[in-house]
């Protein structure tokens, strides 16, 4: 049986999740264009159901999770993302920033932290 490392387990999942979020935003933009809607006026505050947080919060929260796990995987404490996104361009940029963070994670460093205990 082969082993899977912490890096191999985490980074592809995070990367796919960010690509999916970006794709969802692209589809929303296509829909808005097709329907003649201003995507930035309609969708950042949109909710799938009444008691759900808006889309902008969902993107911010997902990318915050990437940032937190990035820090844990490399053993640093860095400044959190500033949550100031208002437009789809802002949301795409935040997703891209999170993707770039994942690309900076050294496989060896992340794998060496597999047994690390962190405060939550």
Rg over C-alpha atoms, rounded to the nearest angstrom:
17 Å
Report the CATH superfamily. Answer: dinb family like domain
Name of the CATH first level: Mainly Alpha
Structural category: mainly alpha
Oligomer: single chain
Anisotropy-based shape: elongated
**Alpha carbon gap, first and last residue:** 32 Å
Compute the number of structural domains: 1
What does the main sheet amount to? Answer: none
Q: pLDDT under 50 segments (min length 5)?
A: none
Kindly estimate the percentage of residues that lie in beta strands according to DSSP.
under 5%
Overall pLDDT metric: 92
Fraction of helical residues:
55-70%
Counted beta strands: 0
Per DSSP, the total helix count is 5
Q: Within the CATH hierarchy, at the fold level, what is the topology?
A: Four Helix Bundle (Hemerythrin (Met), subunit A)
Please tell me the CATH architecture by its name.
Answer: Up-down Bundle
Tags for this model:
120 residues, mainly alpha, Four Helix Bundle (Hemerythrin (Met), subunit A), 5 helices, 0% strand, elongated
Descriptive notes:
The protein is 63% helix and 0% strand. The chain is mainly alpha-helical. The protein has one domain: dinb family like domain (Four Helix Bundle (Hemerythrin (Met), subunit A), Up-down Bundle), CATH 1.20.120.450. It is elongated, with a radius of gyration of 17 Å.
Topology at a glance:
Layout: H1 6-35, H2 39-42, H3 55-74, H4 88-103, H5 107-112
């Amino acid at each position: 049986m082969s082993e899977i490392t912490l890096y191999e387990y985490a980074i592809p999942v995070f990367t796919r999740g960010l690509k999916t979020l970006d794709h969802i935003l692209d589809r929303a933009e296509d829909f808005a264009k097709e329907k003649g809607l201003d995507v930035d006026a309609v969708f950042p505050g949109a909710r799938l159901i009444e008691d759900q947080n808006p889309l902008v919060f969902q993107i911010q929260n997902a990318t915050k999770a990437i940032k937190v796990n990035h820090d844990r995987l490399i053993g640093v404490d860095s400044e959190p993302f500033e949550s100031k996104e208002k437009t789809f361009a802002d949301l795409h940029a935040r997703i891209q920033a999170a993707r770039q963070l994942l690309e900076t994670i050294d496989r060896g460093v992340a794998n060496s932290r597999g047994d690390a205990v962190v405060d939550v």
